[in-house]
Every structure is written in structure tokens, then in C-alpha cells.
């Protein structure tokens, strides 16, 4: 095979068109009444064959070997190529219609000539700009008339229409040097070729006719268009021969031009698109190539592949994180090649005899045969080592799994097949995060690597447990979410205990063979059970998410007491035993999970896999038994909070009125760099925020007691403390009050003239009239407040809509521009053509996936370790 | 009146390598000259050095990941 070195694009000249034409097409008819192609018609067998069995009349080859051959149509009168009329306009605007010279004095032309030689690419544009303005020819003094292009193909000289024949005469007059100055190299392109006198007719293979089931032949759109062109061309010829009046000839000429224009591009501006009999617009040359459904984006960049499947995904916490549940139907369809060897031949023969698992047998020469009841016995006799089989997917095969949009490398990971009942693909919920999948109907794709190289590459680089740490920010992405985190939190609460029977079940689920001693009298603590999942040499100490929430909501105000923390919020793992602290999102969560990070980094990848498997099993059982409930009574506040809430709102209103007074009297303290009004707005926002914070803290401290006590209530607060979902703000909005509605970081101000809604007095800038909501979701909002709330809600909705759209496209542009950069063996970053981009990857040479949150090492930790 | 781009805080320090260090750098990098990133002769940051085609410009710049880095461009 020859290698393509380069491609350049030129305009096809009439000589070449005639030379490559196998036959001149003269008849508009395609088939005769017997259904045979007409000689000299558009389906003439000189143009190639599309029926198997027939031979090409030009090259004598059969369908598979004949590449197809071009024909040609000779026009009686030339027409313009519509895509080049702009070029012709520029040429005619800057040249003289009498002598064909550029409308510039000789000395100027000399000057441009030398500039062009120096490689100034702007010369043609500059010349056209200058020459356009001339009133008369600099060379023959003929007056210059204005050239006007009535798009796409009608030219006027002054008020007179000029026809392609005249245009061609004009263009042919222009001397070579002048054309060179206009940017034309006559060796490559002569502008007179923009006027078509002979049209290439594409081979039949480009526009095959289709025989419908009813036996009716249906022609390709291009053929239809070519028929139109030939018909009009013939009519024009007849009329000229018969000496018809000029007017009729010009009309037909225009009609021929119309058909040629739409043959090239049926979406040309200013031309009604040519329609099929059914009213559908024809798909002509440009339409075939252009846009999403065009040849490039649809067929060349977007190819479909074999060995792939797609289905809805659903969760299954009982399969391993690197497994994928595949329905039997899919497994039967996907195949994997396997060689027949001395060692396997007997087993394979047995399988062929007894099952349908093996679907094809391939001889060493590549010839494949399907195994059916008829062929089975024959194949059994024939096969020997050296043959290959193609068998259905089995448990343990490696497949690639993918969810679109594939924004990062974790959107495609390798999984181990596990054939299951049902019709959906099953995944462990732990991999939802990297795929960004949920189970509201998401569909995902499987691809089956066919070669040994492919399989082992997938296993080394793409296996889930090898991708727990994100290559983007160097922290965990394969993480427990929501229920998983809440479950582990409940399991490791100080108060969680299990009887021997309950504990045994968990030990069994985890596959623990040596039973630990009970640590709570006869009972086992949740922490002890959790410790069984950890490797024996694990040592960690850090503060939990609970600690952060408690600090933030003001429940815990003292300095950290370490492992003596009264709230059990300090995690201490010693020799694989969880001594104190509760395991929550700062141990398990995305991008922070310290425990997951350590397990994934310091141990072999099956440790993290096993850990997740054990957690999933224990937690699903625990959650079904203990239960996590969000009852309405949870949001019923105590009288103490209700009173405090009322009085603090009252207080805020009073403060608000004071602020308004100060603002109106202009006695308000102005914040440096702000105007009086801005200072006032900030003051009002701050006032409502402070009021809200105060109540939020009160609610949280009451709620926290119920979880951290002896008999914990397992509800929303568990989610807040563990960081699995929601925050104290959400709780506040449900049970406390909403506070200030905000639009663009401030109080909403657009609406009616000088007021937010018509229920308010004009010019009232007070707290309530400015969008303060003193009600909550539990009791419900009143009318006014509902509208305030909607103002803020609208902004959120618009923001998410706009930012997903904008950032998605931005990301695509960035990813496409960087996609074929790679790190060379000398550690420099190169483009596909080996041009250097960076002297060291990322300038620091750090591989983010092996980094610790982007840094090559954690200095603090390393020092601690050495001490 | 003329604005000196080199004074601007976003413009890193550019300097021209002498022919000895050019040879040394090229052999250290072990890379074909034509594959190096380019800089035009008329770039405002190096204009005053009157660079010739094939000269190598050393750029010391601040990097958010590595602190300080050096980058080399070939004059085109
Ligand atoms: Mg979804
Ligand atoms: Zn042929
Ligand atoms: Zn003239
Ligand atoms: Zn604490």
C-alpha cells in the first residue's frame, strides 16, 4: 500500500474532466422499459457496476474490483460554478472589461510585484481594494462600470446583465502577471475554469439506485439532479438550433444555472432549494459532506464499533467494585476469540458438543464458520490446534465500561464480567462518582477487548481498583456516597453495639475466620466490627467531618482535645483498630477521604477492593436493621427554639428599622470604598445572616445531642454530621426560617418601580419588604415570601442551565486541543508530530494520579513518620 | 511614552543564550532544533537583543506548580 504524503486541493480543469470521463452522458433517461440501463444514460454501465455478477464496460472488472468511473455532460452554454462566483466578482471588479488589465498604474503594479516576491500574502487583498475604486482603465482609458453580483450567480455590468460566455471572454483576456498579483498560479488554477462548460458525472457507486421491496426502482438524489441538468441542457440545445428568440434561450440558460447551482449546494442563499416529488428537499453534494449528519462528522469521525453493548444501569452492592453484572442476553451476543491448543482442544470439543457457548470456529487462514446444529458434527471433526474459536462472554472476562459524556479517563474503566439475571447492567454504587452515573434511567456501554494485549492493558491501566485516586487532583474518586457514608457513620458511633448473634452475621459477611473478643461485656461495638475491615498495620489520626460541623455550628467551642474528644469526633486508628472517633466523609468522602486515600496508596489494590466489598455488605444489612428515617416530627422544634426564633426575628426587624432610619438620615457608617447605599445593603444582608446563624446554631446543638447520646435518633442529623448529604443550612430552612432571599449576592432589587412586588409600599427599603423571609418550609411560606423565595430560586435555575452549557463546550474545546499530547521517554511533553510543548510535564514533572493532592509528597506526614 | 512590556509583571525575564550555551543546551536536551517551541524575531520581549534566526531564548518564569522554571524558545 502507498502512503499518502500530502493532499492539495485544486480546481478541476475541463481538459482533465474530459480525459477522465468514461462516456459522455447525453440522455436524460436512466433505464429503458425493460429495466436495462440506457446507453449514454446516467446509469450506463461504463460508469461502473453495482450489481454483483455484472462486469464494468470500462475496466471489465466485477463489482468488488471496479472503482467506478466518471462520465461527463457537455453544456451547450457555460454556467458559473456557484461556489466561485465571489472570486469572479473580485476579479472583475479589479480588472478592465476592455483590455483585461488590473485597474492600477504600471508603477503601482511593479511595486506590488516586488512585495509579492517577498512573500507578502496580503498583496491580492490590497490590490483588489485599490483597483475597485478606479473610474477608468489605467491602461486603455476605457470607462469602468460597476460590477454587481446578484447572489449567487447573476452578474450585472452597470445595469446590463452579463452572461457566463461574456465573463469567460473577459477573464481569458487578463494577462498572466495580473492574475498572479491577484493570487492565482496559472500552473494550478485558471480562473476561467470557474465557468463550467463540462460537468463531471460521478460514478454509479456514488449514487446507487435502490430497488424497493415492491420492485420499484428509486434513484439517488444526485441522479435526479443530473437528470434535470441533462434535460434542460437538451432543451436549450434544441431551442438554439431552432433559432428560438433570445428571451427564451436566456430563460433556459438561467434554468440550467439553477440546476447546476442546486446540484452543488441545495442550500445556496437566495435560491429556492430543489424539492423531491414528495416535497422533501434534495440532498446534493454540499449536504452530503456538511454538518453533523455529513460525511465527516457522521461517517469518518463517528464510527460504530463491533463487540459493544448498551443497556440501562442499576445498582448492586453485593458485587465487587470491579465487577459488572451483565445480562445473559448480552453475554450471548458478545464474543471473545480464543486459540485452540493441545491443552484446550478436548475441553473445547466437549463445549461445542454440549453447549452453545462457542459460536464460531475460524481456520488458521481466517475463514469463519458459525456453529449450528447442521455444522456441529463437521466442525467437531475438522478442528485441531491452530484453529480459533469465538466464544460467548463468561464470568471473569475483562470488559471496558463507559458512560457518556466521557469527560475524563475514569469515564471508561475496566471491569470483570459477572453474568446475572435481568436485563440491566449492574454496577457497585461506589463507581457512580467517577462515571457520574445515577439510576434514574442512565444507560452505559460495554466494549470487549479482543486481543491479549488489549485485555492486559485494560487490566493494568483501567481496572477500577487501580483508579481509586483521581488523576486530576490526586485524591479519591471511587468513593461511597450518601447511604454508604451514613451507614459507616452509624456503625462507628460510640453508642453502636451488637449482640453476639448480630456480630456473627457481620463477621460471616466479611469472611472473618478468627473471631475477635467482645469489647462491650458480652456485646461487640460497631467500632470493633469496622476494625475487622482494616489492615493490621494501619495507623492514622485526624479530625472527622463531625468535628468540623460541630465547630462550624458552634456546638463545640473548646480547643481540640484529640482522642479525648467528648463528641467522639477525633479518629484514631492504631494497628488496624479504630480506637476512637467516628468514620464519616472525611474518612470516606470524595477528594478528602483520608482512610480511602491511605488504603489505596499504601496497600496493594486488592485491599481497597476488599474493604469496599466488606463495607457494602455490612452497611446494607445495618441500614435495613437500624433504619434511617426522616420523620416530620424531626422538624418540629422545641418551644425554647420557637421562642428564641420569634424574639430574634423581632429583634432583627427592630435593628432593620434602625438601619433604615440611619440610611434615610444619611447617618449610617459608610464602609470604606462603598457608597452609602451599598453600605446600607451590606448592613441589611449582614443583619439577616447573623440572625439566621444564631438560630441555626441553636437548632443544631439540640439536634446533635439526639445523635451523639446513648440511644441515638438516626435521622437527617446523621447525614449532616457524617457529611453524606445536606448541611445545617438545609435543616435551618426546613425547621427555622429561610432568611434573606438573595439574587446575585445581594437583596433582590429588580421587579416593579421602587419596590419588589406590588404588595409593598413604594420606596420601602425595610427588611421584610426587601425580601426577608421569616418563615420555613415546615410551616410553609405566605404569599409575599413565596415570591421573594422564587426570585432567588430563579437565579439558581438559570445559573445551572447557563454554566453547564458554557463549561461543557469550554471543556470540549480544551480537551480536543490537548488530546494528542503525550509524555516522551525523555519526560518532555510533545505534540503528535513530536514538537516540544513542555520541558517537564506540568513544569514540575509530577504525575497527578500518584501525587498527594497535587504535591509530590506530604512533608508534614513524612516528618511525623520519621520522628 | 513608549510602553516597555518587559516592565510588566506578567512578562517573564527573557535572555539570549550565547552560541556556546546554545550547543550545550541542545546536547543536554538531546532534541532536534526544529522541534523546539518558537518565538518570532520581532517579539517585543526580545526585540532589543536583535536576535537572529536559530538563536535560543531562555525564559525564566514563575510556575504555579514548580515555583521557578526555565523554558527555551528558538528564534524563528
Ligand atoms: Mg441520570
Ligand atoms: Zn470499471
Ligand atoms: Zn483597459
Ligand atoms: Zn473536636
What is the β-strand count of chain A? 27
The total tally of domains of chain A equals 5
Distance between the amino and carboxyl termini of chain A:
66 Å
Fill in the CATH topology of chain B.
Eukaryotic RPB6 RNA polymerase subunit
Low-confidence stretches of chain B: none
Topology at a glance:
The complex is a heterodimer of chains A (867) and B (76).
Chain A lengths: L13 H7 L50 E10 L4 H10 L11 H12 L5 H9 L15 E4 L3 E4 L2 E3 L1 H10 L2 H6 L13 E7 L8 E2 L5 E2 L2 H21 L4 H19 L20 H5 L5 H6 L7 E8 L7 E5 H6 L1 E5 L5 H10 L3 E5 L5 E3 L5 H7 L5 E5 L5 E5 L9 E9 L4 E3 L4 H4 L7 E5 L4 H11 L20 H10 L4 E2 L1 H11 L13 E2 H6 L8 E4 L1 H8 L17 E5 L2 E4 L4 H4 L5 H9 L2 H22 L12 H27 L10 H33 L7 H7 L5 H8 L3 E2 L31 E2 L9 H36 L3 E2 L5 E2 L5 E3 L20 H8 L1
Parallel strand pairs in A: 8-16, 9-15
Antiparallel strand pairs in A: 1-5, 2-3, 3-4, 6-7, 8-17, 10-13, 11-12, 11-13, 14-15, 14-17, 18-19, 20-21, 21-22, 23-24, 25-26, 26-27
Helix pairs in contact in A: 2-4, 7-8, 16-22, 23-24, 24-26
Chain B lengths: L12 E4 L2 H11 L8 E2 L16 E8 L3 E9 L1
Parallel strand pairs in B: 2-4
Antiparallel strand pairs in B: 1-3, 3-4
Bound molecules: magnesium ion and zinc ion (3 copies).
Magnesium ion binds next to loops of chain A.
How does this structure look, described?
- The complex is a heterodimer of chains A (867) and B (76).
- The model of chain A has no long low-confidence stretch (mean pLDDT 89).
- Chain A is extended, with a radius of gyration of 39 Å.
- In chain A, strands 9-15-14-17-8-16 form a 6-stranded mixed β-sheet.
- Chain A is an alpha+beta fold and 867 residues long.
- Chain B is an alpha+beta fold.
- Chain B has one domain (10-75): RPB5-like RNA polymerase subunit (Eukaryotic RPB6 RNA polymerase subunit, Alpha-Beta Complex), CATH 3.90.940.
- Chain B has a 4-stranded mixed β-sheet, with no helix packed on it.
- In chain B, strand 3 and strand 4 form a beta hairpin.
- The termini of chain B are far apart.
- Chains A and B meet through loops of A and strand 4 of B.
- The complex binds magnesium ion and zinc ion (ZN) (3 copies).
- One zinc ion (ZN) is lined by residues 48, 56, 58-59, 61, 66, 69 of chain A.
Amino acid at each position: 500500500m502507498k502512503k499518502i504524503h500530502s493532499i492539495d486541493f485544486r480546481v478541476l480543469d475541463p481538459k482533465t474532466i474530459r480525459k477522465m470521463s468514461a462516456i459522455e452522458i447525453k440522455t436524460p433517461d436512466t433505464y429503458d422499459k425493460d429495466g436495462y440501463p440506457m446507453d449514454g444514460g446516467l446509469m450506463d454501465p461504463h460508469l461502473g457496476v453495482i450489481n454483483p455478477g455484472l462486469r464494468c464496460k470500462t475496466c471489465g472488472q466485477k463489482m468488488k474490483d471496479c472503482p467506478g468511473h466518471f462520465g461527463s455532460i457537455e453544456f451547450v452554454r457555460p454556467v458559473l460554478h456557484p461556489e466561485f462566483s465571489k472570486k469572479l466578482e473580485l476579479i472583475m471588479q479589479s480588472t478592465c472589461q476592455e483590455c483585461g488589465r488590473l485597474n492600477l498604474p504600471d508603477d503601482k503594479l511593479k511595486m506590488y510585484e516586488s512585495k509579492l516576491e517577498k512573500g507578502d500574502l496580503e498583496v491580492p487583498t490590497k490590490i483588489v481594494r485599490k483597483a475597485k475604486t478606479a473610474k477608468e482603465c489605467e491602461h486603455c482609458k476605457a470607462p469602468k462600470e460597476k460590477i454587481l453580483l446578484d447572489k449567487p450567480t447573476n452578474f450585472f455590468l452597470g445595469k446590463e446583465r452579463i452572461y457566463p460566455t461574456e465573463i469567460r471572454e473577459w477573464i481569458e483576456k487578463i494577462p498572466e502577471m495580473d492574475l498572479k498579483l491577484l493570487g492565482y498560479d496559472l500552473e494550478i488554477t485558471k480562473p476561467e475554469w470557474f465557468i463550467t462548460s463540462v460537468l463531471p458525472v460521478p460514478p454509479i457507486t456514488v449514487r446507487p439506485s435502490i430497488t424497493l421491496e415492491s420492485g420499484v426502482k428509486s434513484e439517488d438524489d444526485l441522479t435526479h439532479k443530473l437528470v434535470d441538468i441533462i434535460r434542460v441542457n437538451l432543451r436549450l440545445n434544441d431551442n438554439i438550433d431552432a433559432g428560438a428568440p433570445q428571451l427564451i434561450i436566456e430563460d433556459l440558460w438561467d434554468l440550467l444555472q439553477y440546476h447546476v447551482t442546486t446540484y452543488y449546494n441545495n442550500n445556496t442563499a437566495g435560491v429556492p432549494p430543489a424539492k423531491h416529488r414528495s416535497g422533501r428537499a434534495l440532498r446534493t453534494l454540499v449536504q452530503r459532506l456538511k454538518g453533523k449528519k455529513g460525511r465527516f462528522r457522521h461517517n469518518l469521525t463517528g464510527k460504530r464499533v463491533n463487540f459493544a453493548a448498551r443497556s440501562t444501569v442499576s445498582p448492586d452492592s453485593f458485587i465487587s467494585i470491579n465487577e459488572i453484572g451483565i445480562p445473559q442476553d448480552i453475554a450471548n451476543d458478545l464474543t471473545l476469540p480464543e486459540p485452540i491448543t493441545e491443552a484446550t482442544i478436548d475441553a473445547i470439543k466437549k463445549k461445542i458438543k454440549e453447549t452453545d457457548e462457542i459460536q464460531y470456529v475460524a481456520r488458521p487462514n481466517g475463514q469463519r464458520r458459525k456453529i449450528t446444529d447442521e455444522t456441529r458434527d463437521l466442525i467437531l471433526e475438522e478442528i485441531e490446534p491452530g484453529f480459533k474459536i469465538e466464544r460467548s462472554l463468561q464470568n471473569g472476562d475483562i470488559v471496558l465500561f463507559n458512560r457518556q459524556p466521557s469527560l475524563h479517563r475514569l469515564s471508561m474503566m475496566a471491569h470483570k464480567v459477572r453474568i446475572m439475571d435481568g436485563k440491566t447492567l449492574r454496577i457497585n454504587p461506589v463507581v457512580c462518582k467517577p462515571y457520574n452515573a445515577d439510576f434514574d434511567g442512565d444507560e452505559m456501554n460495554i466494549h470487549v477487548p479482543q486481543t491479549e494485549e488489549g485485555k492486559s492493558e485494560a487490566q493494568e491501566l483501567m481496572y477500577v481498583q487501580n483508579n481509586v485516586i483521581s488523576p486530576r487532583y490526586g485524591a479519591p474518586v471511587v468513593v461511597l456516597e450518601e447511604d454508604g457514608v451514613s451507614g459507616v457513620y452509624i456503625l462507628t458511633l460510640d453508642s453502636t453495639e451488637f449482640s453476639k448473634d448480630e456480630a456473627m452475621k457481620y463477621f460471616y459477611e466479611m469472611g472473618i475466620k478468627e473471631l475477635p473478643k467482645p469489647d462491650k461485656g458480652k456485646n461487640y461495638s460497631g467500632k470493633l466490627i469496622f476494625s475487622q475491615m482494616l489492615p493490621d498495620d494501619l495507623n492514622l489520626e485526624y479530625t472527622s467531618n463531625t468535628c468540623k460541623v460541630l465547630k462550624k455550628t458552634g456546638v463545640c467551642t473548646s480547643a481540640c482535645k484529640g482522642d479525648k474528644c467528648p463528641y467522639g469526633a477525633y479518629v484514631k486508628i492504631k494497628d488496624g483498630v479504630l480506637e476512637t472517633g467516628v468514620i464519616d466523609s472525611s474518612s470516606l468522602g470524595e477528594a478528602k477521604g483520608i482512610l480511602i486515600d491511605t488504603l489505596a496508596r499504601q496497600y496493594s489494590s486488592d485491599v481497597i477492593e476488599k474493604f469496599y466489598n466488606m463495607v457494602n455488605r455490612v452497611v446494607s444489612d445495618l441500614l435495613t436493621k437500624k433504619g434511617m428515617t426522616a420523620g416530620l416530627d424531626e422538624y418540629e422544634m422545641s418551644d425554647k427554639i420557637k421562642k428564641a426564633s420569634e424574639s430574634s426575628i423581632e429583634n432583627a426587624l427592630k435593628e432593620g428599622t434602625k438601619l433604615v432610619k440611619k440610611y434615610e438620615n444619611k447617618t449610617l457608617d459608610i464602609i470604606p470604598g462603598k457608597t452609602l447605599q451599598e453600605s446600607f445593603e451590606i448592613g441589611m444582608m449582614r443583619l439577616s445572616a447573623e440572625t439566621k446563624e444564631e438560630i441555626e446554631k441553636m437548632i443544631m446543638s439540640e439536634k446533635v445531642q439526639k445523635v451523639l447520646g446513648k440511644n441515638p435518633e438516626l435521622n437527617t442529623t446523621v447525614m449532616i454530621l457524617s457529611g453524606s448529604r445536606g448541611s445545617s443550612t438545609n435543616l435551618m430552612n426546613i425547621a427555622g426560617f429561610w432568611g434573606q432571599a438573595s439574587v446575585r449576592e445581594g437583596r433582590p432589587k429588580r421587579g416593579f418601580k421602587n419596590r419588589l412586588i406590588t404588595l409593598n409600599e413604594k420606596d420601602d427599603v425595610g427588611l421584610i419588604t426587601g425580601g426577608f423571609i421569616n418563615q420555613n418550609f415546615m410551616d410553609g411560606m405566605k404569599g409575599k415570601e413565596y415570591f421573594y423565595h422564587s426570585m432567588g430560586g430563579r437565579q439558581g435555575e438559570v445559573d445551572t442551565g447557563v454554566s453547564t452549557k458554557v463549561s461543557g463546550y469550554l471543556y470540549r474545546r480544551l480537551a480536543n486541543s490537548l488530546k494528542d499530547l503525550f509524555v516522551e521517554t525523555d519526560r518532555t511533553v510533545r505534540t503528535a508530530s513530536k514538537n516540544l510543548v513542555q520541558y517537564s510535564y506540568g513544569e514540575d514533572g509530577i504525575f497527578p494520579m500518584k501525587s498527594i493532592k497535587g504535591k509530590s509528597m506530604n512533608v508534614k506526614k513524612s516528618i511525623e513518620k520519621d520522628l | 511614552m513608549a510602553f516597555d512590556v518587559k516592565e510588566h509583571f506578567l512578562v517573564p525575564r527573557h535572555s539570549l543564550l550565547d552560541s556556546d550555551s546554545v550547543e550545550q543546551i541542545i546536547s543536554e536536551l538531546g532534541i532536534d532544533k526544529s522541534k523546539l517551541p518558537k518565538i518570532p524575531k520581532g517579539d517585543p520581549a526580545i526585540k532589543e537583543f536583535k536576535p537572529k534566526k536559530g538563536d535560543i531564548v531562555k525564559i525564566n518564569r514563575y510556575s504555579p506548580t514548580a515555583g521557578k522554571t526555565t523554558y527555551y524558545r528558538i528564534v524563528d
